[in-house]
UniProtKB/TrEMBL annotation:
One of its GO terms (molecular function) is oxidoreductase activity. Residues 7-194 form the Ketoreductase domain. It comes from Yinghuangia soli. PANTHER family: OXIDOREDUCTASE SADH-RELATED, RETINOL DEHYDROGENASE-RELATED. This is SDR family oxidoreductase. Transmembrane segments: none annotated. PROSITE patterns: ADH_SHORT. Belongs to the short-chain dehydrogenases/reductases (SDR) family. InterPro entries: KR_dom (IPR057326), NAD(P)-bd_dom_sf (IPR036291), Sc_DH/Rdtase_CS (IPR020904), SDR_fam (IPR002347).
Length: 295
């Protein structure tokens, strides 16, 4: 896809961060934009500003990507309204900081619903429309945390590893079926977005401190990330690494494998429990309660 002028691009999580920056970047290329976000006011603002950046047409829809039926309805409405869909970017995401032992099931399921199922729903909903387009590309946003495990980020890593495997499998399927749909997995490093400020955290962790720590290591602007992703689509890259940290982690993982883990633990900067909490003491059964297999 060398030219985005007049092409229809659908982007989730377009109310802020990478999604908003992608909307503006594609607008400068003359794309028509179907934008969605859980924050209705934010996505309407993105759509309005995108028109000023050169988008020929925009729509803004409140969509909870964890709701499969809502995603399907948005995909079908987008195709009906614009007549086609050429580019889909499944970008919406949230964060959760908690060790496996500290993590609440509700928070784990919340993150997976958005970060993995949202990508899967968006892919399945838009794929038939992309197949009918003459020029089509699907982009799913994973992370550098889809390349290696990080302490206190087990849920996020699980989702981003899943996105990576799901997308790479789909890319092979599209090639085997001789489909014209191109597929790209994106692995951003630290991007200066608000994801850390809207993240959930385990009890006892200070959200403000976590956000400040993230700000110190996030080196890439959303605008630069958007330019790198658009360039990757133009070049039909199977994988796109966003930021020097993403490239460094990819190379380190390839060269060192598990040998990279001590550096990761040091860099994580948080002491984790070295052992699981003690189990409750066993309760002796009375003879009348016991079951004897030989009886």
């Amino acid at each position: 896809m060398q030219d985005f002028a007049g092409k229809v691009a659908a982007i989730t999580g377009a109310g802020s961060g990478i999604g908003r920056a992608l909307a503006y970047e594609l607008a400068r290329h003359g794309a028509r934009l179907a934008l969605s976000d859980i924050d209705a006011e934010a996505v309407r603002e993105t759509a309005a500003i995108a028109l000023g950046h050169g988008a020929s047409e925009t729509t803004a829809t409140r969509v909870d990507v964890a709701d499969r039926h809502a995603v399907q309805a948005w995909a079908d409405d987008t195709a009906d309204y614009f007549g086609t869909v050429n580019l889909v970017v499944n970008n919406a995401g949230v964060a959760l900081t908690a060790s496996v032992e500290e993590m609440e099931w509700e928070d784990f399921e919340w993150l997976m619903g958005i970060n993995f199922w949202g990508v899967a729903y968006g892919t399945k909903a838009f794929l038939p429309h992309l197949r009918r387009a003459r020029d089509a590309h699907l982009v799913n946003i994973s992370s550098v945390f889809g390349l290696m495990g990080i302490p206190t980020q087990s849920a996020y890593c699980a989702a981003k590893y899943a996105v990576r495997g799901f997308t790479e499998s789909l890319r092979q399927e599209m090639r085997l079926s001789h489909s014209g749909v191109r597929v790209t997995t994106v692995h951003p490093g630290g991007i200066k977005t608000n994801i850390a400020r809207s993240a959930r955290a385990a009890k006892g962790l200070e959200a403000g401190e976590l956000a400040a720590d993230f700000d110190r290591i996030a080196r890439t602007s959303p605008e630069r990330a958007a330019r790198i992703i658009v360039r990757g689509v133009k070049r039909n890259r199977a994988r796109v690494f966003v930021g020097p940290d993403a490239t460094l982690i990819d190379v380190g993982q390839r060269l060192l494998g598990s040998g990279l883990e001590p550096l990761v633990r040091t860099f994580a900067g948080r002491s984790l429990p070295t052992a699981a909490p003690p189990l409750p003491a066993p309760v002796a059964l009375r003879s009348a309660d016991a079951t004897d297999p030989a009886a």
